[in-house]
Design brief:
The structure holds 2 protein chains of 2 kinds. By secondary structure, chain A is an alpha+beta fold. Chain A contains 4 helices and 13 strands. By secondary structure, chain B is an all-alpha fold.
Chain lengths: 317, 173
């Protein structure tokens, strides 16, 4: 018997090797059935080893991701920094564009409301600053070639800025409303009070003062001042400022009040120069070509800005 | 001693393979390490021992392969051992490329055997999700994934053999 096994051991091994799995396959292939002892044993053997292997690999993976892969993180960090800087620059540009858009909308609204005014748009290209950072006068990128002349009013959608005092081919210089040499005839809106607004050239803030002879009606803080047009320099109805305080100061026969300009002079970017006033407002929709048919008169009279370092009060016309 | 070392190494490789491939997010097709190990065992071991180790490796594969019917991996392992043992008299592997070709061809054949055995012995193989179709669809990718591991596992077992039996013969020649 032993000799038989030894002689045929290869055949027996082969047959057993093939038959045993087939038997197991037959037993385990039936359906439905319960978990066999072999399956339980296999799970007992393989599951802990597989769990341990997963933990080891997880540890290696954590080590890799936490330390070694940080080299890539540094590069990614640099890329993200660059991205952030680019996005911040984009964001700043967007904010600037939005602010510009807002301002230009204001200018457009102004042009729509004041169709009687012929205007030329200009950018602020230079600002003279006081030691305290106040803007004293501004330079524009429009000059005689754009039809600009001395004395022409300069406005924004918010109101009066000042007037042109010097002009050359491509550039013009503007004297601000708050300049001590600036004089504007005004009236208090909806009140029977007229007077003149002169600048103070205050180094600390943008303030002007209004001089008037008498009050037909009581004034209040915040009352709006508009150009009266009596000086033939500034077209009527332009916003000049609001009453800052009711602390009057009597000077001879006149009273003085402090005025806050309507325009934020510190944030000027674009302005409009009034080159003419139509007797009848044009009906053509804006923006578009300048209305031609209506006769225009220059808002710049012969009177030029009168430099007077300490302006004397002027009576209302 | 040598056979035990080969089986333990195969066992460890199979244990590491599943989480490793899962971490690498390429777990769809798993290389058949057990099959490659059986090929090596068949090529380098006497028939009786080869069949015995083939049975053990096949049983371990059945344990590691979720949902696989016990006996299926064993049968394929024994057949692979017998085939490679038969081939060992005529086949001389030339470098890693030969091992890769051998692993590729055997993997294809193993898939067909798996299909046939499953159809015969596994009662619910054709129920629900189409088992035969899955086996046929994964046959080629499985073989392609297994092929490089043929060279890797053969090289690893060669080194292991050199350590355990202090011989320098290589199946790669």
């Amino acid at each position: 018997m032993r000799e038989f096994f030894l002689r045929h051991r290869k055949t027996i091994t082969t047959v057993l090797g093939i038959a045993l799995p087939l038997f197991l396959l037959y037993v385990h292939g039936r359906s439905p059935r319960k978990t066999t002892i072999i399956e339980k044993a296999l799970i007992q053997v393989t599951a802990p080893v597989q769990g341990a292997a997963a933990r080891v690999l997880s540890g290696i993976s954590d080590l890799w991701n936490g330390y070694i892969a940080l080299v890539a993180v540094a590069e990614e960090n640099a890329a993200l920094r660059a991205d952030r800087q680019r996005l911040e620059a984009d964001s700043t540009r967007l904010v600037i564009a939005l602010a510009e858009n807002e301002r230009l909308r204001g200018e457009l609204d102004f042009k729509r409301k004041r169709r009687d005014l012929l205007t030329v748009g200009a950018h602020i290209i230079g600002k003279d600053l006081s030691p305290y950072g106040r803007i004293l006068r501004v330079a524009l990128d429009a000059g005689t070639r754009s039809g600009i002349a001395e004395g022409m009013p300069v406005v924004t959608g918010m109101g009066l800025v000042g007037r042109v005092v010097r002009v050359s081919g491509e550039y013009a210089e503007v004297m601000l409303l708050v300049d001590a040499r600036s004089v504007v005839n005004v009236r208090v809106l909806d009140k029977g009070v007229t007077g003149t607004v002169t600048g103070t050239s205050s180094p600390y803030n943008y303030v002007a003062r209004m001089s008037y002879l008498h009050r037909a009606e009581p004034l209040e803080v915040g009352d709006l001042l508009v150009t009266s047009g009596h000086d033939k320099v500034f077209p009527p109805g332009l916003h000049v400022g609001t009453i800052r305080s009711l602390e009057e100061r009597q000077r001879d026969v006149e009273y003085e009040l402090q005025i806050t300009p309507s325009v934020n002079l510190a944030a000027l970017e674009e302005v409009q120069i009034v080159t003419g006033v139509l007797d009848e407002p044009a009906d053509a929709p804006l923006p578009g070509a300048a209305p031609a048919p209506a006769p225009a008169r220059s808002p710049t009279p012969a009177r030029s800005p009168t430099p007077s370092p300490s302006p004397s009060p002027r009576g209302s016309p | 001693m040598r056979g035990l070392a080969l089986v333990l190494t195969t066992f460890l490789l199979m244990a590491l393979l599943s989480p490793l491939l899962h971490d690498a997010d390429i777990a769809r097709y798993v290389p058949d390490i057990a099959l490659v190990a059986c090929l090596y065992v068949g090529l380098t071991t006497s028939l009786e021992k080869a069949v015995l180790w083939g049975l053990v490796i096949g049983l371990l594969e059945d344990g590691f392969t979720t949902g696989q019917t016990v006996g299926l991996g064993m049968e394929i392992a024994v057949l692979a051992v017998l085939a490679s043992h038969r081939l060992s008299r005529r086949l001389v592997l030339r470098g890693p490329l030969g091992a890769m070709f051998l692993a590729f061809g055997t993997s294809l054949a193993a898939s067909l055997v798996e299909l046939a055995l499953s159809l015969v012995f596994v009662r619910n193989f054709t129920e629900g999700a189409s088992g035969p179709l899955i086996v046929l669809q994964s046959m080629l990718p499985q073989a392609l994934v297994t092929a490089p591991f043929g060279a890797i596992v053969f090289w690893l077992f060669d080194r292991l053999d050199a350590l355990t039996s202090r011989k320098n013969e290589s199946v790669f020649m």
